[in-house]
Design a protein that fits this description.
The longest helix is centred in the middle third of the chain and has 7 residues. Helix content is 3%, strand content 40%. It has 235 residues and is an all-beta fold.
Length: 235
């Protein structure tokens, strides 16, 4: 048989503001505040109730800001509009663009772990969080291998809303130069800098209490700074 049981629900507030392109520049900002919950699995076999838990797709906050600015230099612009034609080929026609993205990390869980304590003590303040200790490993986890249970009724939830992986915090920048050649031709140079400030996006920390690497981040899931250069001839 094919069985469809379980469901999920999602609520969000979305805010968008835009400064339309005028005077050579434009800015668009988007903010999303959301909650994604699910009840699609059972902690203790098919006869136990569905578990109400935060979804692994939940990202409470997301911010995206993009901007374009045509530099006001060169022929027809506010500054240096009377520069010689040769100089205008170098200093005119520039445009810079940028996109900033920030997003909350994914909620993580600890499997069928033994825990005695206050679950709110697991989360560390951002000032104390680091790859060597992403959360409070001393909050109450039983870490001894010989004390783990072979069979038990599970109460530990699948995920914790306030214990999350690293979130996105990235700038993508680009610079573009248009150079007119007569009335028909245009040479366009573009330089793109993805993750321009080379911000590391850490992977999920180790969540196995019996592991010697418990609470540590040993990898990254983003990409380092990428630089792409391109040249186009338009006619």
């Amino acid at each position: 048989t094919t069985q469809y049981d379980g469901y999920s629900w999602y609520h969000a507030l979305q805010v968008r503001t835009e400064r339309r392109f005028a005077s050579g520049w434009t800015v668009t900002a988007n903010y999303l505040w959301s909650k994604n919950m699910e009840a699609i699995s059972r902690l203790n076999g098919p006869h136990s109730p569905l578990e109400y838990v935060v979804s692994d797709q939940d990202r409470p906050h997301r911010v995206v800001v993009s901007a374009i600015w045509e530099l006001p230099f060169g022929k027809g612009k506010s500054y240096l509009s009377d520069m010689p034609a040769v100089a205008d080929k170098f200093f005119g026609g520039w445009q810079v663009q940028g996109i900033y993205t920030a997003q909350s990390g994914q909620a993580i869980g600890f499997g069928n772990a033994l825990f005695i304590g206050d679950i709110h003590d697991i989360t560390l303040p951002k000032s104390e969080r680091k790859p060597e200790r992403w959360f409070n490993t001393d909050a109450g986890f039983e870490r001894a291998s010989n004390r783990q249970l072979g069979n038990n009724y599970r109460l530990m939830p699948s995920r914790f809303n306030d214990v999350r992986t690293d979130g996105i915090n990235s700038f993508d920048l680009s610079a573009l130069k248009n150079t007119r050649i007569g009335e028909r031709f245009n040479v366009q140079f573009r330089g793109e800098f993805l993750n321009a400030f080379n911000h590391t996006l850490f992977a999920t920390p180790n969540t196995t209490p019996t592991s010697s690497a418990f609470g540590q981040v040993t990898a990254q899931r983003g990409y380092p700074r990428r630089i792409q250069l391109g040249l186009k001839f338009l006619f």
